[in-house]
């Protein structure tokens, strides 16, 4: 019976996604798995490590951005144990340590950015957090595989201020477009004035055309001075001879 009991304690089986760190009399003996292996009962102690990707739900963190705006940010962190011996020997509780480090790193990265950058460039923010976490967890044998900002909440007062800012920006753009239109119209009028100055008869013809348009719009009859008509005819003939 004693032999059967000892043998049952000596036989260990771990899954494909698991590894076992073995300590023999307190010293690191090696890493076993996956599958079946034997240990020495009482003398050997084992710590089982899961190699699958682990998800950390980082709770909402109140963070002050670089432009002094308070936001509430939460995220999801994905990591994986790459070196089981380091995860056991270099840190007391690698799961808790990674979770706490994720919170502080999230606050540090967001605190160095302005609100507009956090809202408009989340992909870059995610990459910065991941890189910093990966550097910090590398001595623990942990690889951070991904970071995703899940939500960025802003106070209602700040939301109203952002809405006013956006409205002012749209108003500025509309005024710029209107000014550009007026500038182009003025340029065209300047060119037209130069043409009329070179050909005065064109100005008179334009005047008669305007009279005709007014008459059509208001159902009026516009009677022009016969002298003006004669003058236009004379100028037209002179211009034709000049051509």
TrEMBL record:
InterPro entries: Band-7_stomatin-like, Band_7, Band_7/SPFH_dom_sf, Stomatin_HflK_fam. SMART domains: PHB (SM00244). Keywords: Hydrolase, Membrane, Protease, Transmembrane, Transmembrane helix. It is a single-pass membrane protein. Coiled coil: none annotated. Gene3D superfamilies: 6.10.250.2090, Band 7 domain (3.30.479.30). GO terms for molecular function: peptidase activity. GO terms for biological process: proteolysis. It is found in: Membrane. GO terms for cellular component: plasma membrane; side of membrane. Residues 9-166 form the Band domain. Signal peptide: none annotated. Belongs to the band 7/mec-2 family. This is Regulator of protease activity HflC, stomatin/prohibitin superfamily. It comes from Methanolobus profundi.
């Amino acid at each position: 019976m004693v032999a059967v009991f000892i043998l049952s304690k000596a036989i260990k089986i771990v899954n494909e996604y698991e590894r076992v760190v073995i300590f023999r009399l307190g010293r690191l003996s090696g890493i076993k798995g996956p599958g079946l292996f034997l240990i020495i009962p009482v003398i050997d102690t084992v710590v089982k490590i899961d190699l699958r990707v682990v998800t950390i739900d980082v709770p909402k963190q109140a963070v002050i951005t670089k432009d002094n705006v308070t936001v509430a940010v939460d995220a999801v962190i994905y990591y994986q144990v790459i070196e089981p011996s380091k995860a056991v020997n270099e840190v007391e509780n690698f799961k808790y340590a990674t979770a706490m480090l994720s919170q502080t790193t999230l606050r540090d990265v967001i605190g160095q950015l302005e609100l507009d950058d956090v809202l408009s460039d989340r992909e870059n923010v995610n990459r910065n957090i991941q890189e910093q976490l990966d550097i910090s967890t590398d001595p623990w044998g942990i690889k951070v595989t991904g970071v995703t900002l899940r939500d960025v909440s802003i106070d209602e007062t700040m939301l109203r201020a952002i809405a006013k800012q956006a409205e002012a920006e749209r108003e500025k753009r509309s005024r710029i477009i209107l000014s550009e239109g007026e500038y182009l119209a003025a340029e065209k009028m300047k060119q037209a004035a130069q043409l009329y100055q070179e050909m005065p008869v064109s100005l008179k013809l334009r005047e008669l055309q305007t009279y005709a348009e007014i008459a059509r719009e208001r159902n009026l009859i516009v009677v022009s001075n016969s002298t003006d008509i004669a003058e236009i005819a004379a100028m037209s003939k002179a211009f034709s001879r000049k051509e």
